[in-house]
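Contributing new records

If you add data, match the layout below exactly. Sequence lines come first and carry their own label; structure lines follow with theirs. Keep one chain per record. Anything else will be rejected by the validation script.
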Amino acid sequence: MQTQATFDAGALKARFNPEGSQLRKHQLKMLEMVVELDKICRRHQIPYFLYGGTLLGAIRHNGFIPWDDDLDVAVMRKDYLRLMKILPEELPDHIALQTNETDPNYFYFFAKLRDRHSLLEEECPYDQVFKERGVYIDIFPFEKMRFWTHLVAEPLQGHTFKIFRTSSNRERAMRKIRAITWFNRHITFPVLRGISRITCGKTLTYDYGIPFHIVYDEQDIFPLTTHVFEGVELSVPGNSHHMLETQYGDYMQLPNLDHLGGHVSKLELYDE
């Protein structure tokens, strides 16, 4: 059951992301990118929606969770494929699209938009081999499938992360990772996708190769609506409450503020 949020928004902002702070500057970079994405999606009638912690921030805080240092959106796979073709043509020069096609060492199966006027280093080391390494937002594709096919796919790509972490030779590790990623992208995952289509898979979750498998109800997402996020109307699921409840439980209650973690270990913001 959703309960009313009880917190002092001003005190949270003063503690975590006051104006002029490094985190706030980071958040404003991400906001700039999602506003550009929103414009492009509206122009081409591509439905997207805020997702995960970003959706939680929109509903609970009308913007970023004060301590949050990432931003997530999601689209259905058929719209994702169309978006990947449009973005390189319409993004401003200072924002790069990062996929396995634009960056051979990028072995994730979701896209990022990257700001080219910054440098970001994450707590995890995977981004060290990527071509684009600025502030980013994530774009996750969702797809309907047989649930077991997603469970099969997860370790097939998940093995690449273990190779990266345990190898003493980064160049040799990346050769293996690129080969596995290519095979999964062009062989394994299309086969699993074909099985799901033939057998009329109806489970809605992340696309193949993404190591999460939270299951959602399409009726909670569509039809989409909008919600204020940092003063901008952005697209959100029609039943954000049930989506957030599925993922977080009583999402209006704050976590323990003394035990929060972030993604970023180092951030440099450059003059444009």
